[in-house]
Amino acid sequence: MTLIEIFVVVAIIATVAAILVPTMTRAKATAQSVQCMGKLRDIGIGLNQYFADRGMIFPTMVAARESRSDDVPAIDTVLLEYVGDEFAFECPADHEGIFEETGSSYFWNSLINGQRMGNMDLLGVIRRESGIPIASDKENFHQHVGDGVNVLYADGHVTRRLQFVVEQQ
User: What is the pTM assigned to this prediction?
Assistant: First the structure.
């Protein structure tokens, strides 16, 4: 093999690597976003089990706590027995250590505290469960797949939102 052939092979390998690395990074980020959505669905399933025990009333919890040592009712403490695993509250894309520090990668919508499922009201504007967010990512963990956060809604569906927009319904 001549020196020119070696340079050509190295150039081809470098080009292939330049194409594959960003593609693999995006694929990994997309997989983590999908896993995160799955964990929010699991939290929704756990919440349904909570409803069965508590007469369809939403728990009263803080939106988030600053530290695991804070002794307040939070999503990861109140719903833990219904979800079954503390790591259900960790978004796989949470590389900032929010889960480790606070116990959850997810916010709770404290505006729905104590409301009865089926008779909900969010600030008098949204009354349908399909439009009322109950939990979401604390940060935009999924920047490699676009801006926005994953959101769990009161009717159980999970979607990706670019921003929270209160819509008249």
Answer: 0.80
